[in-house]
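User: Sequence in, structure out. Go.
Assistant: Echoing your sequence, followed by the C-alpha coordinates.
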Amino acid sequence: MIDIKNLSFNYDNNYKALDNINTQLGPGVHLLLGENGAGKTTLLHVIAGLLFAKEGSCEINGNDISLRNPSDMSKVFFMPEDITFPAKTINDFAKIHSPFYPTFSEDLFRQNLEIFHLTGDEPLSSLSLGNRKKANLAYVMALGTDVLLLDEPTNGLDINAKKELLKIMVGSLRDDQTVIVSTHTVWDLKNLFESVMMLRRGNLLLSMSTEEISSKLAFMASTTPDANALYLEQDMNGFRWIEKNNNGIETEINFSLIYSALMSDAAQKVLDALK
Protein backbone atom coordinates (compact mmCIF):
# COMPACT_ATOMS: atom_id res chain seq x y z
CA MET A 1 0.00 0.00 0.00
CA ILE A 2 1.26 3.45 -0.99
CA ASP A 3 -0.21 6.35 0.99
CA ILE A 4 0.69 9.84 -0.25
CA LYS A 5 -0.46 12.76 1.90
CA ASN A 6 -0.19 16.48 1.03
CA LEU A 7 3.05 15.80 -0.81
CA SER A 8 4.91 18.70 -2.45
CA PHE A 9 8.39 18.77 -3.94
CA ASN A 10 10.53 21.71 -5.00
CA TYR A 11 13.86 21.55 -6.80
CA ASP A 12 16.73 23.84 -5.78
CA ASN A 13 15.66 26.50 -8.28
CA ASN A 14 12.30 26.65 -6.42
CA TYR A 15 10.52 24.97 -9.33
CA LYS A 16 7.55 23.14 -7.80
CA ALA A 17 7.54 19.73 -9.46
CA LEU A 18 4.75 18.32 -7.26
CA ASP A 19 2.01 20.33 -5.57
CA ASN A 20 -0.02 18.88 -2.69
CA ILE A 21 -0.45 15.33 -4.01
CA ASN A 22 -2.91 13.08 -2.17
CA THR A 23 -3.69 9.50 -3.16
CA GLN A 24 -3.67 5.90 -1.98
CA LEU A 25 -2.63 2.99 -4.16
CA GLY A 26 -3.24 -0.60 -3.15
CA PRO A 27 -2.17 -3.81 -4.84
CA GLY A 28 -2.51 -3.86 -8.61
CA VAL A 29 -0.99 -2.27 -11.70
CA HIS A 30 -1.48 1.49 -11.89
CA LEU A 31 -0.94 3.69 -14.94
CA LEU A 32 0.77 7.05 -14.40
CA LEU A 33 0.11 9.60 -17.15
CA GLY A 34 1.26 13.17 -17.72
CA GLU A 35 3.01 15.41 -20.21
CA ASN A 36 6.78 15.80 -20.24
CA GLY A 37 7.77 17.74 -17.15
CA ALA A 38 4.51 17.00 -15.32
CA GLY A 39 6.34 15.49 -12.35
CA LYS A 40 5.91 11.77 -13.07
CA THR A 41 9.56 10.77 -12.65
CA THR A 42 9.90 13.05 -9.62
CA LEU A 43 6.93 11.32 -8.00
CA LEU A 44 8.45 7.89 -8.66
CA HIS A 45 11.73 9.05 -7.11
CA VAL A 46 9.90 10.24 -3.99
CA ILE A 47 7.98 6.97 -3.66
CA ALA A 48 11.27 5.08 -4.04
CA GLY A 49 12.92 7.13 -1.28
CA LEU A 50 15.40 8.69 -3.71
CA LEU A 51 14.05 12.24 -3.34
CA PHE A 52 12.58 13.83 -0.23
CA ALA A 53 9.39 15.84 -0.20
CA LYS A 54 9.44 19.44 1.00
CA GLU A 55 6.01 18.98 2.53
CA GLY A 56 3.78 15.99 3.22
CA SER A 57 4.71 12.33 3.28
CA CYS A 58 4.83 9.07 1.38
CA GLU A 59 4.28 5.87 3.34
CA ILE A 60 4.83 2.32 2.16
CA ASN A 61 2.82 -0.18 4.20
CA GLY A 62 2.51 2.45 6.94
CA ASN A 63 6.21 3.35 7.05
CA ASP A 64 7.68 6.70 5.97
CA ILE A 65 9.88 5.83 3.00
CA SER A 66 11.96 8.99 3.43
CA LEU A 67 13.53 7.42 6.54
CA ARG A 68 15.08 4.85 4.18
CA ASN A 69 14.99 2.02 6.70
CA PRO A 70 16.70 -1.02 5.12
CA SER A 71 13.67 -3.21 5.77
CA ASP A 72 11.48 -0.75 3.85
CA MET A 73 13.95 -0.12 1.02
CA SER A 74 14.15 -3.86 0.34
CA LYS A 75 10.43 -3.79 -0.46
CA VAL A 76 10.65 -1.08 -3.14
CA PHE A 77 12.43 -0.98 -6.49
CA PHE A 78 12.50 1.76 -9.11
CA MET A 79 13.58 1.02 -12.67
CA PRO A 80 14.27 4.24 -14.61
CA GLU A 81 13.75 4.48 -18.36
CA ASP A 82 17.47 4.12 -19.04
CA ILE A 83 19.54 2.25 -16.48
CA THR A 84 22.94 0.58 -16.71
CA PHE A 85 23.56 -2.05 -14.09
CA PRO A 86 27.21 -2.04 -12.91
CA ALA A 87 28.16 -5.59 -13.83
CA LYS A 88 29.45 -7.54 -16.80
CA THR A 89 26.28 -9.59 -17.20
CA ILE A 90 22.82 -9.56 -15.71
CA ASN A 91 23.63 -12.88 -14.02
CA ASP A 92 26.62 -11.24 -12.34
CA PHE A 93 24.49 -8.32 -11.23
CA ALA A 94 21.82 -10.62 -9.81
CA LYS A 95 24.42 -12.40 -7.65
CA ILE A 96 25.58 -9.09 -6.19
CA HIS A 97 22.27 -7.26 -5.94
CA SER A 98 19.57 -9.85 -5.19
CA PRO A 99 20.71 -10.62 -1.58
CA PHE A 100 19.30 -7.20 -0.62
CA TYR A 101 15.85 -8.33 -1.78
CA PRO A 102 14.59 -11.37 0.16
CA THR A 103 11.61 -11.79 -2.20
CA PHE A 104 13.84 -12.36 -5.25
CA SER A 105 13.08 -15.57 -7.14
CA GLU A 106 15.92 -17.24 -9.03
CA ASP A 107 13.45 -19.55 -10.75
CA LEU A 108 11.37 -16.62 -11.94
CA PHE A 109 14.50 -14.83 -13.14
CA ARG A 110 15.46 -17.86 -15.26
CA GLN A 111 11.93 -18.14 -16.59
CA ASN A 112 11.87 -14.46 -17.58
CA LEU A 113 15.22 -14.70 -19.34
CA GLU A 114 13.98 -17.70 -21.29
CA ILE A 115 10.86 -15.83 -22.41
CA PHE A 116 13.12 -13.02 -23.65
CA HIS A 117 15.40 -15.57 -25.39
CA LEU A 118 18.39 -14.67 -23.21
CA THR A 119 20.72 -16.71 -21.02
CA GLY A 120 21.82 -13.90 -18.71
CA ASP A 121 25.49 -14.46 -19.60
CA GLU A 122 25.48 -11.98 -22.50
CA PRO A 123 27.84 -9.04 -21.83
CA LEU A 124 25.59 -6.07 -21.11
CA SER A 125 28.00 -3.69 -22.81
CA SER A 126 27.67 -5.50 -26.13
CA LEU A 127 23.88 -5.87 -26.10
CA SER A 128 21.62 -3.63 -28.15
CA LEU A 129 19.42 -1.18 -26.27
CA GLY A 130 16.43 -3.48 -26.64
CA ASN A 131 18.21 -6.63 -25.45
CA ARG A 132 19.80 -4.78 -22.54
CA LYS A 133 16.34 -3.56 -21.57
CA LYS A 134 15.05 -7.14 -21.74
CA ALA A 135 17.86 -8.41 -19.51
CA ASN A 136 17.16 -5.67 -16.98
CA LEU A 137 13.42 -6.33 -16.99
CA ALA A 138 13.89 -10.09 -16.63
CA TYR A 139 15.77 -9.42 -13.39
CA VAL A 140 13.59 -6.59 -12.04
CA MET A 141 10.38 -8.57 -12.56
CA ALA A 142 11.85 -11.41 -10.48
CA LEU A 143 12.60 -9.19 -7.45
CA GLY A 144 9.09 -9.59 -6.07
CA THR A 145 9.14 -6.29 -4.19
CA ASP A 146 5.93 -5.06 -2.56
CA VAL A 147 6.22 -1.88 -4.63
CA LEU A 148 7.63 -1.85 -8.16
CA LEU A 149 8.04 1.42 -10.08
CA LEU A 150 8.62 1.26 -13.83
CA ASP A 151 9.41 4.33 -15.93
CA GLU A 152 8.73 3.70 -19.65
CA PRO A 153 9.41 -0.06 -19.42
CA THR A 154 8.53 -0.75 -23.08
CA ASN A 155 10.78 1.91 -24.61
CA GLY A 156 13.43 0.25 -26.79
CA LEU A 157 11.50 -3.01 -27.10
CA ASP A 158 10.32 -4.32 -30.46
CA ILE A 159 6.76 -5.56 -31.05
CA ASN A 160 7.43 -9.16 -30.03
CA ALA A 161 9.45 -8.12 -26.99
CA LYS A 162 6.53 -6.00 -25.78
CA LYS A 163 4.29 -9.06 -26.02
CA GLU A 164 6.90 -11.05 -24.11
CA LEU A 165 7.05 -8.39 -21.40
CA LEU A 166 3.28 -8.56 -21.02
CA LYS A 167 3.56 -12.35 -20.60
CA ILE A 168 6.34 -11.90 -18.04
CA MET A 169 4.35 -9.38 -16.03
CA VAL A 170 1.29 -11.61 -15.96
CA GLY A 171 3.44 -14.54 -14.81
CA SER A 172 5.63 -12.62 -12.38
CA LEU A 173 3.38 -10.27 -10.45
CA ARG A 174 1.65 -11.39 -7.28
CA ASP A 175 -1.81 -10.20 -6.29
CA ASP A 176 -0.39 -8.31 -3.30
CA GLN A 177 2.16 -6.26 -5.27
CA THR A 178 1.68 -2.58 -6.08
CA VAL A 179 3.08 -1.60 -9.47
CA ILE A 180 3.18 1.88 -11.02
CA VAL A 181 3.90 2.13 -14.74
CA SER A 182 4.74 5.58 -16.09
CA THR A 183 4.47 5.53 -19.87
CA HIS A 184 3.32 7.38 -22.96
CA THR A 185 2.83 4.15 -24.94
CA VAL A 186 -0.30 3.18 -23.05
CA TRP A 187 -1.49 0.53 -25.49
CA ASP A 188 1.42 -1.86 -24.84
CA LEU A 189 0.21 -2.93 -21.38
CA LYS A 190 -3.35 -1.59 -21.46
CA ASN A 191 -4.97 -4.83 -20.29
CA LEU A 192 -3.02 -4.78 -17.02
CA PHE A 193 -3.99 -1.35 -15.70
CA GLU A 194 -6.36 -1.30 -12.74
CA SER A 195 -6.24 2.42 -12.05
CA VAL A 196 -5.14 5.66 -13.71
CA MET A 197 -3.26 8.61 -12.25
CA MET A 198 -2.86 11.80 -14.26
CA LEU A 199 -0.41 14.58 -13.44
CA ARG A 200 -0.47 18.00 -15.06
CA ARG A 201 2.09 20.65 -14.13
CA GLY A 202 2.75 19.00 -10.80
CA ASN A 203 -0.93 18.65 -9.87
CA LEU A 204 -2.75 15.34 -9.57
CA LEU A 205 -5.85 15.66 -11.76
CA LEU A 206 -7.02 12.08 -11.49
CA SER A 207 -6.43 8.98 -9.38
CA MET A 208 -9.20 6.47 -9.95
CA SER A 209 -9.75 2.80 -10.65
CA THR A 210 -10.45 1.76 -14.23
CA GLU A 211 -13.66 0.14 -13.00
CA GLU A 212 -14.93 3.45 -11.63
CA ILE A 213 -13.89 5.35 -14.76
CA SER A 214 -15.76 2.86 -16.95
CA SER A 215 -18.86 3.19 -14.80
CA LYS A 216 -18.93 6.98 -15.24
CA LEU A 217 -17.54 7.56 -18.73
CA ALA A 218 -18.22 5.95 -22.10
CA PHE A 219 -15.55 5.82 -24.81
CA MET A 220 -17.13 5.92 -28.23
CA ALA A 221 -16.17 5.93 -31.92
CA SER A 222 -18.14 6.51 -35.11
CA THR A 223 -18.00 8.14 -38.53
CA THR A 224 -20.26 10.92 -37.24
CA PRO A 225 -19.73 13.01 -34.08
CA ASP A 226 -22.01 13.01 -31.05
CA ALA A 227 -23.51 16.22 -29.73
CA ASN A 228 -23.26 14.97 -26.13
CA ALA A 229 -19.49 14.46 -26.25
CA LEU A 230 -17.51 15.80 -23.32
CA TYR A 231 -14.40 15.59 -25.47
CA LEU A 232 -14.14 14.85 -29.19
CA GLU A 233 -11.30 14.00 -31.57
CA GLN A 234 -11.29 13.40 -35.31
CA ASP A 235 -8.88 11.22 -37.27
CA MET A 236 -8.78 9.52 -40.67
CA ASN A 237 -11.23 6.83 -39.49
CA GLY A 238 -13.85 9.19 -38.11
CA PHE A 239 -14.51 10.48 -34.62
CA ARG A 240 -13.61 9.31 -31.13
CA TRP A 241 -15.14 10.86 -28.05
CA ILE A 242 -15.85 10.62 -24.35
CA GLU A 243 -19.35 11.03 -22.97
CA LYS A 244 -21.14 10.37 -19.70
CA ASN A 245 -22.06 6.73 -19.19
CA ASN A 246 -25.79 7.15 -18.81
CA ASN A 247 -26.86 3.62 -19.71
CA GLY A 248 -24.63 1.64 -17.34
CA ILE A 249 -22.93 -0.27 -20.16
CA GLU A 250 -19.17 -0.23 -19.65
CA THR A 251 -16.88 0.42 -22.60
CA GLU A 252 -13.15 -0.25 -22.91
CA ILE A 253 -11.15 2.70 -21.63
CA ASN A 254 -9.20 4.54 -24.29
CA PHE A 255 -6.24 5.71 -22.19
CA SER A 256 -4.86 7.85 -24.99
CA LEU A 257 -8.20 9.62 -25.36
CA ILE A 258 -8.62 10.34 -21.65
CA TYR A 259 -5.07 11.67 -21.53
CA SER A 260 -5.79 14.05 -24.42
CA ALA A 261 -9.09 15.08 -22.82
CA LEU A 262 -7.45 15.97 -19.51
CA MET A 263 -4.78 17.96 -21.34
CA SER A 264 -7.43 19.96 -23.22
CA ASP A 265 -9.87 22.79 -22.47
CA ALA A 266 -12.49 20.09 -21.86
CA ALA A 267 -10.59 18.72 -18.85
CA GLN A 268 -12.95 20.17 -16.23
CA LYS A 269 -16.06 18.78 -17.95
CA VAL A 270 -14.50 15.30 -17.93
CA LEU A 271 -13.40 15.62 -14.30
CA ASP A 272 -16.85 16.82 -13.27
CA ALA A 273 -18.38 13.76 -14.94
CA LEU A 274 -16.10 11.56 -12.86
CA LYS A 275 -17.27 13.00 -9.53
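User: And one key feature?
Assistant: The radius of gyration is 20 Å.
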